[in-house]
Design brief:
The protein has about 110 residues and is an alpha+beta fold. Helix content is about 20%, strand content about 20%. It contains two helices and five strands. Strand 2 and strand 3 form a beta hairpin.
């Protein structure tokens, strides 16, 4: 989508601090980190959010979930990390191209 921020990051027209890329996904550091390590795992395909996913996205979602811990450990989050998927305006989503937040490090993250 031409007016989507993360599609532009996928296309490379907006720069990002990329830590992973393959045919289906990219991961890059969040521009406003909420923890010492905070990156976003993003499919290259434009899907607005989790509520827009169907069974046709199951392999992509599984790939994202399985990749998250590998990248987290690579980024030094050996003691663990938190994943977060904001969905819709009511869920705090601001960029409507699905993404998983992965963050941690430093002080213990409060329980929710
Ligand atoms: P959401 O609130 O949609 O779940 O999360 C969007 C995230 O994207 C926010 O944490 C925000 O800091 C991050 N973000 C917004 N614009 C940019 C950008 O241009 N570059 C990067 N790397 N992150 C961004
Ligand atoms: Zn997009």
């Amino acid at each position: 989508m031409s007016d989507c921020l993360f599609c532009k990051i996928v296309a490379g027209t907006i720069p990002s601090k990329k830590l992973y890329e393959d045919d289906d996904l990219i991961a890059f550091h969040d521009i406003h980190p909420i923890a010492p390590v905070h990156f976003l795992l993003v499919p290259k395909m434009h899907v607005a959010g989790l509520a827009d996913c169907g069974v046709e996205h199951k392999d992509l979602l599984a790939k994202m979930l399985l990749l998250a811990p590998k990248l987290a450990v690579e980024q030094g989050l050996v003691a663990g990390f938190r994943t977060m998927i904001n969905t819709g305006s009511g869920g705090g989503q601001e960029v409507f191209h699905i993404h998983f937040h992965v963050f941690g490090g430093g002080a213990t993250i409060p329980k929710i």
